[in-house]
Fold these 2 entries.
Entry 1:
Amino acid sequence: MMDTRDCACGQTTVRDEAARWFVRLQEPAIDVAEQQRFEHWLAEHPQHRDEFQWLQGLWSAADLLPAARLRALCEIPPALSKRRPFLRYAVAASVVAVALGLGLFSGLNSSSTYTAEFSTALGERRHVALPDGSVIDLNSRSHLQVRYEKGQRGIELTEGEAMFNVAHDSDRPFVVEAGSGKVTVTGTRFDVRRGARDTRVAVEQGTVKVQGRGAADNAFISLTAGLGTRVDAQGNVAAAYAVNPAELTAWRSGKLVFNNASLSDVAEEVSRYREKPLTVSNDKVGQLRLTSVFKSDNTDALLKALPNILPVAVRTLGDGSQEIISK
């Protein structure tokens, strides 16, 4: 049964709310406050994200229609242009229906190929819907390439971090390659972070297979919900260990959550959100542990707080970067 909630516009369904947000996000630009309200709405309830992702998956099919036909389908008569945003949602569904009728929705054709490339700038997060209904959330300073072909849905994460919500397709495994690691699934939710020293994988839902890139097909470990692993630069996969997926993916709501994290890992993560990198002066400093929560858009607050939490200081180097040193 469709969930119904109260919102500022009165009684409405979650699907109506998703439609309204979808229309707002089609504008050329939205301000930071509006983006934050959207992120807050997504985080309020799992169904919010599910409905929004479903709508984006439908709309992705429109990319496969000829431009002239798409414009004609999406034209809204002036007399109706002031009606509630759900009208455009209905138009989106109509476009998809036509796409399906013409056999243009590549998500239904396992022999179809699809290629794309997505990236984010400093401080930017991006929500991407793929033609098969899979959805990717990209963290700051991230870059990936997508290639769907017969028998496989392939992703190459060349930089940064991404959260994957994979539509189930047993005939076409979803394979993410990042650094020296490779993750294979048929449908699940998981996070992949490519760092300078290793690639980390954490599973929120379902099961994934993790192996070193180039390893034999039978050389892998399986991760289920609440488990994670690391793949080092040589392709060695660590034994599975318990993780808190909510903490690891808190970046989706603009938070940095550190739970007994080494300062080396903290510095690497914080650098993703700063113009200049943050480093540690030596291994001894890097092994100090931090437990705290900060906003990803205000890493200066973290640097100011560090000397009050740990026996360290932060100094600015000649190139404008900053380094954590012992007091």
Entry 2:
Amino acid sequence: MEEKRKNILFINFGGLGDEILFLPAIISVKKEFPDSKITLALEPRSKGITALTDIIDETLCADIKTKGLGKYFALIKLLFKIWFKNFDIVVSSGGNKFISLFLFLTFIKRKYGYNTGKLSELLLTKAVSLYKNQYAANMYHDLVRDITGINTELPQIKITKRDVVPNSVVIHPGVSLMSIRKGMVKTVPAVIWAEVVEKLSDMGKNVILAGGPDDKDVIDVITNTVSAEKYTNMYGKTKNLKELAELISSAEKFLCSDSAPLHIGTALEVPTYVVFGPTDDKKLIPQNGKVIPIKAENCDCDICPCLWEHRQTTCEKLSCLNITAEDIVKKLS
């Protein structure tokens, strides 16, 4: 019988949403090897994942978003850290052909990653077929199907859930500043969000506004446009991701953009409504009826959803975000 105590390394570079979507794979392996130590290598911007789970024992950070040679120095530093940790298994996401070589250089005995060609088939213990046209949590979970027969379908986070506030809608309207700086427009303008707050309040909803530093611009438009008595302003009052998750858990309904809080709502199984534009909702939400996409009804773009598959930035036309406040409110009614 295989020894159940392992020292296991997971590598997943991406934003906080990616880390939440990666959790089911980690959870399934931890259930298979319950006495094991779990280490997650990730970008510094996503280290907040540790506030949402107790399954990760240690994190190793590598700032691969640095320009020029900085990315490669960060990976070399990560390799040095890995060499002294004596890992038994490594599981890495990402479809770059370089990843299989990086995993080979870790000198870890059992190496799992996506099949990116002959080199990955030669260097990895298992080169896993990459199927992108599915919910991303399932795509990541494919990496560990040779390690465990346990299947964790949704992200799971560990917080103390609050009592649900009757007739409440928690709204998190913003997206990450990094996506904005990269030219990825993923939500409706701030004036639309202000209209949504106004309309929901006029319908008698208990509107609760949430957000962090990245959301300041959209929150400012809302607070400068809508009378303060029409909503409870929790912007900046949740000090970390755990407190944000606890606030979301109190919602009868949760409304957000395509951003990390969407995946928190999914994990908590709160009825979640998400504004989608250029990204593919079928890859980012489970098809369980508890997460409802809000999309433009008359998008005339031939390649929508386009982001990542066809474009790395959004186009100027943005017909995929021709969504009105009425469209959004109607979905929540």
